[in-house]
Design goal:
heterodimer, A: 430 residues, mainly alpha, ABC transporter involved in vitamin B12 uptake, BtuC, 2 domains, three-stranded mixed sheet, two-stranded antiparallel ribbon, 17 helices, B: 386 residues, alpha/beta, Rossmann fold, six-stranded parallel sheet, six-stranded mixed sheet, 15 helices, 14 strands, 17% strand, globular
């Protein structure tokens, strides 16, 4: 119990920022303000307008599209950033504990300026941008939750990619054969659990190197799914690989909320399930006995063992739960997004979700933030290509990865791995 | 304990490797739009011809089997790429050509699937030993293996899909396609059918065999604008600067879906994805949102992706079956010569698929215009590449 009560106080102490940091922040705000003017404003002719679409395609408009004069918007944003910078520098203690919030606002201002500039004289669908951001974040978040479940209990799981792939294949196969998406989903989750069991036995019972066991599962899954796919699924496409997809379900009332309703509450089951799992895990991990036990096993298994917690059982359960979530994430690809399995269709998302997990400091909500960041960078890059910004496609495609790298590099100093992560527990060693 | 563990791990890894090896290599399978001939890539091979031939001619297998037991029936044999015979793309289409030749000329047809790239040489040799009359190899990736085999067995006739040798090999007939001509028609049709005034195209990876589709499509739209004074926009590709939208892979259908949603969000109502299976993700997005169409590539998606047949406007066809059948026919009639056979609109090597269910929605006027334009392209009056 003591651990839970002391952690927040430690965090609060860190937040009392040093004067240097406050000064640096002020300078950053100023630089961004100047950057908006220097990079964007000077490039735009007066009289052009940028139109922001506020409704995703295929939905009834809840609020009208927003058309703004490009130059004026850019200048206003530049000035606002500059003023914030000056205030931060001049006022004693700057914005104090709100500094990070202001930083977020300034970064947002920069992104909006960038969009306003890139779509000068044209239109960009802002609601659509957020919508694809969320969709891209769904499998990443689920993958990251899977990683958190395993690693908080002290078992490294880099087999998420393999479990996703297997989950995707099995879900598609069973849904096609049975004709029920729910059966397919259950089968996909079970496939994840089965691989998790292998991973668990290898790394908990036999204490093998968890990286190697995870890699083996990844290679095995790629081989196995590609084999089955090319020998059966592709040959009997209509019978074995034709599952259909979960259709979007608009939640009454909530989906009518202007702007956000259409993005958040008119999605298919996987999006709601992601939010539910996210909330459950966030709460479970930090507010329940189960979560405390799990974290103690991941931090200091010897102490947990002494207090009568069954370390092995806790780890098995966590790994199994985590693998099931990974199988669920895999099912998203084949029956939640597009109907059908295709070889290596997860395309490395399992590994990106590990990055999101680390970015989020092994905290569910943080991992969701990391996934959103990656999804946003990815969506933004494809939007820019659609808008016809003259950037070579290879560079644009790199953007999300570069953003992830920068953020990881910037945050990794603060990231704290569970202490016993990846260390097999030996009862009564020596 | 450790023993158990190691045996378990060993089994797992061996299984993974075996299964991994059985499965076709990822990228080539998925690669949708198989590289059309890039003549400049070939030179290294042909230069070796003079040096490599002398030591070999003593080798008998190429000439002996036909001599000892002259085949009663003509044999056409196909070596597939790693995608396998059922790839719904170029391997399957080329095999369709062999099957058509079998039905029409009464010949025997055989195929061997290459599970991995190291199988190419093995499979080619197996067919030579079996006494095939012509060997069809499918795909850009078989270019080197086919060139090597053609010098080892100078009496054998070969034909390769999507490759052209420069200088030509005397016993290899390359099959290449002017895909841009058909894509031009698709662009024109899309411009004529759009209700929002915006159409879109994107690719898997920015390579010439992909962008040739996108170029043709964009120019077709431009031509429509010129003719009709309209301002239909092409999202996702600018033929002048050669920049545009790509998913960066040929695997992730999910990417195809989100990109499709983005295009629809920006107002496009006709999308041509040039990215193999990724395009099926786009079709899923179109089906989800409604009021939009996709244009298929390579094969007629109305038939190959029946799930989405109600949203397929048309497809840009690359008819390897026609060129393959042509090569077989030439070999049978003794008119076979090394060189290049180009699949064009004129000879039916490329074309626009029928509108199928959408037929009633396409104005008769537009159909007539498409026919005129096709004739103009064949006559060489309309440029289809930038």
């Amino acid at each position: 119990m003591t651990t839970t009560t002391t952690t927040p106080t430690v965090k609060r102490e860190i937040k009392v920022a040093s004067p240097t940091r406050q000064r640096v922040m002020g300078i950053i705000f100023l630089v961004i303000g100047f950057g908006i003017w220097f990079l964007f404003s000077r490039d735009v002719e007066a009289g052009t307008y940028t139109k922001f679409g506020m409704t995703t395609g295929g939905q009834v408009a809840s609020i009208p599209d927003l058309t703004v004069p490009t130059l004026a918007t850019l200048n206003i944003l530049a000035v606002v950033c500059g003023v914030l910078g000056v205030v931060q520098l001049v006022r004693k203690d700057g914005f104090g504990k709100y500094t990070n919030l202001v930083l977020g606002g300034v970064v947002a201002a920069f992104v909006i300026s960038f969009l306003t500039w890139a779509a000068a004289g044209k239109s960009i669908n802002f609601a659509g941008l957020l919508n694809t951001t969320l969709l891209k974040a769904v499998p990443l978040t689920l993958g990251a939750l899977s990683g958190i479940l395993c690693e908080r209990a002290g078992v490294v799981n880099i087999a998420i990619e393999g479990m996703m792939l297997m989950g995707a294949m099995v879900a598609s196969l069973f849904a096609s054969v049975s004709g029920s998406l729910w059966i397919g989903l259950a089968a996909g989750v079970a496939a994840g659990a089965l691989l998790g069991l292998i991973h668990g036995v290898l790394s908990i019972k036999y204490k093998t190197d968890q990286i190697i066991s995870g890699t083996a599962i990844n290679i095995f899954s790629i081989g196995m799914t590609s084999y089955i796919s090319s020998k059966f699924l592709q040959v009997y496409q209509l019978q074995l690989n034709n599952p259909g997809t979960f259709q979007p379900y608009a939640i009454p009332v909530l989906s009518k909320i202007p702007f956000f309703g259409g993005i958040l509450f008119d999605q298919n089951m996987f999006v709601y399930a992601m939010f539910l799992l996210l909330a459950l895990l966030q709460f479970g991990l930090f507010k329940t006995r189960w979560g405390l036990r799990m974290r103690s096993v991941g931090e200091y298994p010897r102490a947990a063992d002494t207090l009568g917690i069954n370390v092995f059982r806790t780890r098995y359960i966590s790994v199994l739960l985590g693998s099931m979530v990974a199988g669920f994430a895999g099912a998203y690809f084949s029956i939640g997004s597009v109907g059908g399995f295709d070889e290596v269709m997860t395309a490395g998302r399992g590994f990106i979700s590990l990055a999101a997990m680390i970015f989020g400091n092994w905290i569910p909500v943080g991992a969701f933030g990391g996934s959103l960041l990656f999804g946003f960078a990815d969506s933004l890059a494809s939007k820019l290509a659609i808008l016809g910004v003259q950037i070579p496609s290879e560079l644009l495609l790199m953007t999300p990865y570069i953003v992830t790298m920068i953020v990881l590099a910037g945050v990794v100093g603060r990231a704290r791995t569970p202490a016993a992560d990846g260390v097999p527990y030996e009862k009564e060693s020596l | 304990m450790t023993k158990k563990l190691f045996s378990l791990l060993a089994i797992l890894i061996v299984a993974a490797m075996v299964l991994g090896a059985c499965a076709p290599a990822a990228t080539p399978t998925a690669a949708p739009v198989e590289p059309t001939a890039v003549p400049t890539e070939a030179p290294p091979e042909p230069t070796e011809v003079p040096t490599e031939v002398p030591p070999e001619p003593t080798e008998p297998p190429a000439t002996e089997p036909p001599a000892t037991e002259p085949p009663a029936v003509f044999k056409a044999c196909q070596v597939t790429d790693t995608g396998g015979i059922d790839d719904k793309s170029f391997n399957a289409t080329a095999w369709k050509g062999v099957e058509e030749a079998m039905a029409e000329f009464g010949i025997e047809g055989k195929y061997l699937e290459s599970q991995q790239q190291t199988d190419y040489e093995k499979n080619l040799k197996a067919f030579v030993d079996e006494g095939c009359n012509i060997i069809i190899t499918v795909g850009f990736l078989l270019g080197d293996a086919t060139a090597a085999a053609s010098t080892t067995y100078p009496d054998m006739m070969f034909s390769i899909v999507d490759y052209a040798y420069d200088p030509v090999l005397p016993n290899v007939l390359g099959q290449v396609f002017t895909t841009d001509e058909a894509a031009f028609l698709a662009g024109y049709a899309a411009a004529g059918m759009t209700k929002t005034g915006k159409v879109a195209t994107f690719g898997g990876i920015q390579i010439p065999t992909v962008t040739v589709f996108m170029d043709g499509f964009a120019l077709g739209v431009q031509y429509y604008n010129q003719q009709k004074g309209t301002a239909v926009e092409v999202l996702g590709w600018d033929p002048a600067t050669q920049t545009g939208s790509f998913t960066g892979n040929f695997e992730s259908k999910e990417d195809g879906r989100t990109l499709g949603l983005s295009f629809i969000d920006e107002g496009a109502d006709i999308i041509m994805p040039v990215a193999g299976p990724v395009g099926e993700g786009t079709a899923a997005a179109v089906k989800e949102r409604g009021n939009a169409w996709v244009i298929g590539v390579d094969a007629d998606w109305y038939e190959t992706v029946p799930d989405y047949k109600d949203i397929v406007l048309t497809s840009v066809l690359k008819n390897m079956n026609i060129t393959t059948k042509g090569a077989i026919q030439a070999a049978m009639e003794g008119t076979f010569a090394g060189g290049v056979i180009v699949g064009t609109l004129e000879n039916g090597g490329v074309g626009l698929a029928p509108f199928h269910d959408a037929d009633s929605l396409v104005p008769a006027e537009l159909k007539a215009e498409l026919e005129t334009i096709a004739a103009e392209i064949i006559a060489g009056n309309i440029p289809t590449s930038p």
